[in-house]
Design brief:
The protein is built from 20 helices and no strands. By secondary structure, it is mainly α. The chain has a domain of 224 residues. The longest helix has 33 residues. It is globular.
Length: 527
């Protein structure tokens, strides 16, 4: 039960929030309890980290889940993102008269599903966790019931998400057909080539039969791997499976957009890492020459490039942030591509975890600053809505500036070190061309991020145009302060956080590290 406490806190807490909503006389007031649930879940994950995960943790949950430091790191990151989204919802929904109680149990249950997804060690558990997370997000996307755009966004997201789930199920079914297993270790063992020295393969006839059977199994497993890859690529928002992202981000309430951009992305990348490094992590499937890293490298280039280029053409801030989120998924995919590398693997995996944590606080902060700028009846939508905003409201403008600079990758924010570690791991793995493409795309992204700053500081609103003004919300201001402190703290002391990510990735903690000059398994060295 202790091993499952980060998930149980959210699941049971969500039921309690439902009961509170059912019996309270007035709507609202559930943002802080829901945020506290998420903070408790994050604290539970960190407490398990400090206590130490027992070696038989997998057997204690019958192999359905993998309880390790990677899981705990991601669960804490996801819970932090859910806490930010809950606080932002408390300000946004109340300001725009949408504060209905069912929103907060949806956040709690979806976050529980996300925490389950990053721990899943079985294809069936992946599907259950994915749907638990997704169904709540579909409902939150269409939460603005009177808005046709919100309903359209929810319907598109639901239909495409259901299609991706069907592909995942088909891939899992094919893997079960050829291996007889749904658990990750069992599938991985069954996909290994039979040993020529085994007794069953002693004579030539049996050897030929086994070779033919294995060739058929290999072809089916490759097709299954592609199906699973497409389903995962949809959830992370990789091109060309990103079609839902701009419409869902723009049509959903901004607090839901914040939730999708940080929690769903972190959970999807956690599942992607575990599935492909465990199930398809052998030398043949994880080869850059013909395995899934080759496919992911193409997707990474397309995702970075298309996301950034299309973001350049946007006039809506939320839609720009949607394509920005697509581009960030491309950077993260570079770390996944480098993760199977023999020497740079731990550095690549830890860079992905560090990036996810940094992106969570940066993007949640950016969405929160956008929420703060949109009072009722004058919600900030376009670049023009922000004209002169920072000059009229310096503190609120500075908040949005800080988070946009972090997303751009300007030091000393955490966004700079997130990109730096990803690109360094890509170079260490020998993928110089991919690193160069990432650097070029990062430079391109600066144009549309800085375009918002130009509007805020150097332009005045057109005559008669709506002037953005901050709303008054303790929840939003509090979340911005916490996110801002983390963005600066992680940017000024990145080695502390990267060492935690490296430990979560399998590197030995600093106290147990080998002597200077010895090989540390490819773990990043402190700055």
């Amino acid at each position: 039960m202790l091993l499952l406490s980060p998930i149980l806190v959210l699941a049971v807490g969500g039921l309690i929030v439902m009961l509170i909503d059912a019996f309270q006389e007035q709507e609202g007031g559930l943002a802080m309890p829901t945020a506290l649930l998420h903070f408790v879940a994050a604290a539970a994950a960190l407490a398990l980290w400090q206590r130490g995960v027992p070696s038989d943790a997998g057997s204690l949950v019958h192999g359905w889940l993998a309880i390790d430091k990677t899981t705990l790191f991601l669960q804490a990151t996801i819970a932090l993102g859910g806490a930010f989204a809950s606080l932002l919802a408390g300000g946004y929904l109340a300001e725009h008269k949408l504060d209905r109680g069912e929103y907060y149990p949806l956040i709690a249950f979806s976050t529980a599903g996300a925490g389950l997804l990053v721990a899943a060690n079985d294809m069936l558990m992946v599907f259950v966790a994915l749907e638990t997370m997704s169904l709540g997000v579909y409902a939150m996307t269409g939460f603005r019931r009177t808005s046709a755009r919100s309903a359209e966004a929810a319907l598109k997201y639901f239909l495409l998400g259901s299609f991706a789930a069907a592909l995942l199920l088909m891939g899992a079914a094919l893997l079960y057909t050829v291996t007889g297993h749904t658990d990750f270790p069992g599938i991985a063992a069954a996909l290994q080539a039979p040993s020529p020295a085994s007794g069953a393969a002693a004579d030539d006839a049996n050897a030929a039969v086994l070779a033919a059977q294995f060739a058929i199994k290999l072809k089916i497993s490759i097709f299954a791997m592609l199906l699973v890859l497409v389903a995962m690529a949809f959830k992370v928002g990789a091109v060309p499976f990103h079609m839902w992202t701009p419409d869902a981000y723009e049509g959903a309430p901004t607090s839901t957009t914040a939730y999708m951009s940080v929690v769903v992305k972190a959970a999807a990348f956690g599942a992607l890492l575990r599935v492909f490094l465990t199930v398809f992590g052998d030398a043949a499937n994880a080869s850059i020459s013909g395995g899934w890293p080759a496919v992911l490298s193409v997707l990474a280039v397309l995702t970075m490039s298309v996301g950034n280029l299309v973001a350049l053409t946007q006039t809506s801030v939320k839609r720009m942030l949607a394509y920005s989120s697509v581009a960030h998924a491309g950077y993260l995919l570079l770390g996944v591509v480098a993760a199977p590398h023999a020497t740079a693997g731990i550095a690549a995996k830890s860079s992905v975890l560090f990036y996810l944590l940094g992106y969570t606080v940066s993007n949640a902060g950016a969405m929160g600053a956008l929420i703060l700028a949109g009072r009722r009846g004058a919600e900030t939508v376009s670049y023009d809505d922000l004209a002169g905003y920072a000059r009229r409201h310096p503190a609120a403008g500075f908040a949005l500036t800080l988070f946009l600079l972090s997303l751009t990758g300007v030091p000393p924010t955490v966004g700079f070190f997130g990109k730096f570690y990803i690109i360094r791991a890509t170079l260490d793995a020998g993928y110089t061309n991919l690193a160069i493409i990432a650097l070029i795309n990062s430079a391109v992204s600066a144009y549309y991020y800085l375009g918002v700053l130009v509007k805020m500081y150097m332009r005045e609103p057109a005559p008669g145009a709506t002037r953005a003004a901050p709303m008054k919300s303790f929840y939003v201001v509090f979340s911005l302060i916490v996110a801002g402190v983390l963005v600066v703290w992680m940017g000024l002391m990145p080695e502390r956080w990267l060492s935690l990510a490296a430990e979560a990735s399998g590197a030995r903690p600093a106290a147990a590290a080998p002597a200077e000059g010895a090989n540390n398994g490819g773990a990043p060295t402190p700055l």
